[in-house]
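note to self — DONT lose this again. spent like an hour looking for the file last time. sequence + predicted structure for the chain T wanted, 64 res
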Amino acid sequence: MLGRPLRSGEEVHHINRDRSDNRQENLKVYADHLTHWMEEHYTDVARARGVANSNKSSKGSGPA
């Protein structure tokens, strides 16, 4: 679909997570695994860390 073979290291992502759905509009090519992972998961991980840090700081702020 790209008009060329995948380059070494490139990864294909199925946007709807259905690996059998190879429609062009459902595919995205990433330059490498790290780029793929960061775009797919970084925001979720950062949000979870923010919530965890918020919970930690609120536990220590109660009356003595």
